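Q: Now give one record:
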Amino acid sequence: MPTPINTGTRDVPLKFARVLTEKVNYEWENGDFLAKVSPVTQNLLTYWFTEPFTDNRNFNFHEGQKQAILNTIYLHEVLEVSSVIEMYERISPELIHEMDITLLMKEKYNIPKYAIKMATGTGKTWVMHALLIWQYLNAKFEIKKTERYSKNFLLVAPGLIVYNRLLDAYLGKENESGERVFETSDIYRFRELFIPPSYRDIILGFVQSSVVKKEEIGSKVTGDGLIAITNWHLLMEKEENEEKGYTPLEDVRNIANELLPISPGTTAGHSLEALDNNYFRGKEIDFLARLSNLVVINDEAHHIHENKSYGEIMEVEWQKSLNRIAENKGKNFIQIDFSATPYDVTGSGRNRTKHYFPHIVVDFDLKTAIWKGLVKTIVIDKRKEIATLPLDFKAIRDGKEVIELSEGQRLMIRAGLQKLKILEEQFTKIRPDKHPKMLIICEDTKVAPLVVNFLKKEGLSENDILQIDSNKKGEVPQKEWDKIKQKLFNIDKYEKPKIIVSVLMLREGFDVNNICVIVPLRSSEAPILLEQIVGRGLRLMWREKDFEEAKLENRRRLLVEKKEPINYLDILSIIEHPKFMEFYNELMREGIVAEVKNSPKNRGHVLGDIIKVGLKNNYQKYELFWPIIIQEQEEVLRFEKLSINDLQPFKLFPLEKLKQYVPEDGEVFYSEELTVKTRFGDYKVSKNIFNANGYNELLARIVDTVTNAICRIGKRKIKEFPLMQINQVELAKIIDKYIRYKLFSQEFDPLKDNNWRILLLHNNGVLEHILREISKVIFSMQKNVDVIEAIVEKRNFSEVKELTMRENFSLKLTKTIYERLSYPSNKGGFEKEFMLFIDRDSSVETFIKIYEHKHTFAHILYIRNNGILSLYFPDFLVKTKKNMYVVETKADKDITVPNVKQKQLAALEWVKKINKLRPELRMECKWKYVLLGENTFYGLKDNGASAEEILEYAANYTDKQLTNKNLFEF
């Protein structure tokens, strides 16, 4: 069958990405993926994507980011592909015949090249950071396959905004003095996510010493590698000159400038910095071409396209520059492209076709991002007047001169102002620090001043409006940019300006959260431009947990039930432009946007049933506190109490059997024929790839996992008191001694005969056993505190003065400090009935529901089923005359879940410690722990039992059930 010619790509690359994702996920789930990658990559992927690390962090990669990272690493490290056509051959060869093969055979696709398609606002930059770290650490530490990795990176931005965003991400934001503060960089602020502790100093040091700005490329000396950040104009010098229309006389001047780079008499013209900058001007590409290896990362990579002129396809100048840089590097040149819109468009109207980049490896599209709640939900604001009146939506012109806005444009702006006013009034009621913004995209720079004047006539002040003028490429001169960028990128924090007027400058890289209304006055129908405009408002504004349920219901109503939203939280309103109808209709057909034909008649509808709830006037009557035992300084835990005699040996497999799974000397390789996969020729490669330093690093990881895993759970930060006072150096010595003399009930040298590998074998449980044993002993040591002499901090629940909740899923109750308490809208019936029942029972004096993301102090330390220390937040605290009940309400099917049992065991130990305190430190009550099942509650309640009788029964049952049980029996 002949191969189709010039058919383009259409959506075939998206099919490829789906097939690849299925294969990658299958191998990830069954463990094959991790078994095929380097030890460094294993460490990174385990830290990024597996428990307990994901449980013990404030933030994690979402599923789209995870998929992008896994797919890229799978192709590059597991399959070791060296070209785009090889990607298709290894994953789905049948798809090659649906495309133009001549396209895949081009020079620019004959390299390891991966395009990551992720919707705007879903965190492409985080994926970029992860892949950079993966490449660098493998290049630094992995002896095997070093040609697949690089320590040199070129980050290419399409314009000034994205360029500055990348500098912010790696160097930190500028302070008032114009100096960049590294502690504000992405890499530093989110180091707990990006970098495992053992690599943290290495990566932070590399970034701080190796970032090179565009004007420093080729001149700044770096240490162990390079992170060069530039905008695309570095690679566009020839095209720039042609576009400016230089004359032969100017060519002569250019030659003179090269020979005499500094003009006499200019200010500071003879400074060393000026001489250096001029000398190295134009040398950047030569410098990059001389590097032996390089990873090029293109941000907003839809700018990589082909210009079509008079039917002839010509490579744009900057792609030629990339080809030149890649020349002679072979597999040592890698290109990773990021874009929400990685496609070209051919034809128009019904014949318009999107041709996606052939090297797309993941497709995390806008629809998925919206349904997952990772970006705002989009609605189109339609007005009946717009649909019926024959209005013009282009500015009125006299010849080429723009003289005034058309009536249609005025109407769209007024509609946007009205929507913005509604949002402002309601949002600030619930959160005064939330300031919704409106973005107006003008058709050209001559229209923007008219829009500003019109807004002022509508009653807005000059401080309300931020106008950003740019040239036809969407660029702003550097001096002007320096004046506006601080105000622009901090716009979320302040009430004013509230309206941004721009042309093209903010079509990409403008990463703020509070754009809630977009008025697109441009008449262009280019899909890429329209998607970029929509993308400016997609980032979430309401990220707090208080609003998650309401936003989830919103998406369900809008996207599933096809109903109007109950509120406008994280909804992006686009004022309809008739020229965009086909674009909007396509989004509606895909289920990406909804249609809103009328503004809310009741402005309270904007927030739905979300309310703020404060303390009652007489809250002191119902006050409760949570006791926190703080150890005296002289009661520091001493490690002579911890010895290997307290640790149990590993008995699951004998040492000799484990040794069978470890090669005696080096790595085993084999050959495999490419087409029919015949395997032959096993052979060994001896490598001294583990040493004393590596073993010490393993000990450090164990210590860090045991002692630091509980420092952060969810969004909670534990700063109030020292959680554990442990000498980590001494702990490392004990672990080392345990491994060498007790772990396998015999002497064991981890550095002899590759013995170290036994500790890292997957699925044998050795490392898990070490973690569990150390955690158990440390946990037991916490009980050695003399609680009679302990200092107790009493944390009043009234410290949290305000809660946010949904009114329809809350109760007005008497015996609590707050005006209302909430319960989950999904399966929250048990909690609701429990609160109503104890509130009207005379034996209950007061109670509180513990909100873990608000009452961050009310927790109990426990050991998870996997041996890692974590924090447990019970559901309720209920006080009667003599007793204080720490209550966990659970559906009966969840009571036997292993981690629920672990929480139960830890809570029982904790209340024993509390009951040894002086009476005034425990509110004159005996404390009891209650694990209350749903059937127990309803069964006793329906038979007339009181609240105290139910709680006492459940407490006694819980205690007896666990009597004589080993606290650490898993």
Observations:
- The chain has four domains: 12-364, 366-608, 633-784, 787-961.
- The chain has a mean pLDDT of 78.
- The radius of gyration is 32 Å.
- The longest strand covers residues 883-890.
